[in-house]
Specification:
By secondary structure, this protein is an alpha/beta fold. It has six helices and 18 strands. The protein has helices at about 80-90, 125-135, 155-160, 185, 200-210, 255-265; strands at about 10-20, 25-30, 45-50, 55-60, 70-75, 95-100, 115-120, 140-145, 170, 195-200, 220, 240, 250, 280-285, 290, 305, 310, 315-320. The protein has a five-stranded parallel beta sheet, sandwiched between helices. Strand 12 and strand 13 form a beta hairpin. The longest helix has 14 residues, at about 125-135.
Length: about 325
């Protein structure tokens, strides 16, 4: 008997529109016209694209909508082909397998204010957040949207609507990954706001560096850069020893600790798989880790590791697993 499909939802593409150069918006509905599982602002779907790969995409429509999901896909020719397959091959009427919505980038609606910092396609989860806050009308917010140029920036027309224009700052950086815009005046003084950042890794690294003095729990990151995409030429194999369950697992170059554990039949909680949500935080008992996440503070790095992206500087890591 075959295993059940891990992506239980069947969705039909009801609309596919270009919303920027190289970015296509897909509207997904229930094939029978029924309601869809609810989602919260910041949620994503895992979608099986036409070439068979499974990728995560943020939901960008209003969470109050129950009849459709909207995702925006950037056609990335430097990736491993999933986005190219999706944009080039998926058509209106096609059916796709997907997961129920999951949220590793949740909006804290109790905070009195929010600062959104988006780079390029990183605007997608924040659009859902802004729509959710706008519906409540109780939370002050400001968006800083850093883009290469307006032609390649999705949803500029939506964000420049009269209702939002005064709270949106759009900066064209010419592909400088946000370095041409000084965020320090925005982040220098911690306030009562929560900060949400999604975009290229250099932008997120910069925001993390500038918010180290903010209260714990008030800074949130989202990235769907996969562990393989974070691989570096100098990466070498190493061994992970499991202190509680016993056994050793070899982690090859180009493979994350999380993936190596899965291949060995070990189940470990995870969500974002990009070092931003903290779900896969694991106790580090011995060995020296090379931390590549955006979660752990410096004083936590000696005793914990995010196994979805981080590696080892020593030949072995001993994990509390």
């Amino acid at each position: 008997m075959s295993d059940p499909d891990p992506l239980p939802l069947e969705l039909v593409i009801s609309r596919a529109d270009d919303v920027a150069s190289g970015v296509r918006l897909f509207e997904l509905r229930d094939p029978a016209g029924g309601g869809l599982p609810p989602f919260t602002a910041g949620s994503h779907l895992t979608v099986r694209v036409p070439n068979g790969a499974e990728r995560k995409y943020s939901l960008c429509n209003d969470p109050a909508e129950r009849d459709r999901y909207e995702i925006a896909v950037k056609r990335d020719t430097t990736g491993r082909g999933a986005s190219v397959s999706f944009v080039d091959a998926a058509r209106v009427g096609d059916r796709l397998r997907a997961s129920p919505p999951d949220n590793a980038f949740a909006l804290d609606e109790r905070a009195p204010a929010a600062i959104f910092i988006a780079g390029g396609i990183g605007i997608t989860p924040m659009l859902a957040m802004i729509r959710a806050l706008d519906a409540r009308g109780a939370t002050a917010w400001k968006l800083y949207y850093l883009v290469r140029d307006r032609a390649s920036a999705p949803f500029v027309d939506v964000l420049e609507d009269d209702a939002w224009r005064s709270r949106v700052r759009i900066h064209e950086d010419g592909g400088d990954l946000g370095r041409s815009f000084d965020l320090w005046p925005v982040l220098e003084k911690p306030g009562n706001a929560h900060v949400y950042c999604c975009g290229p890794r250099p932008l997120m690294d910069a925001v993390r560096d500038m918010t180290g003095h903010w209260p714990a729990g008030s800074i949130h990151f989202e990235s769907f850069v996969e562990g393989a995409a974070l691989a570096r030429p100098e990466d070498r194999p190493f061994t992970v020893r499991l202190a509680r369950s016993g056994g050793e697992v070899v982690v090859p170059a180009g493979v994350t600790i999380l993936e190596a554990l899965r291949r060995a039949g070990r189940t470990v909680p995870s969500s974002c798989e990009s070092g931003t949500c903290g779900t896969c935080r694991t106790g580090l008992l011995a060995g020296e880790a090379e931390h590549r996440d955006l979660v752990l503070m410096q004083d936590e790095q000696a005793s914990a590791v995010m196994i979805c992206v981080s590696r080892a500087l020593s030949g072995e890591l001993v994990l509390d697993l």
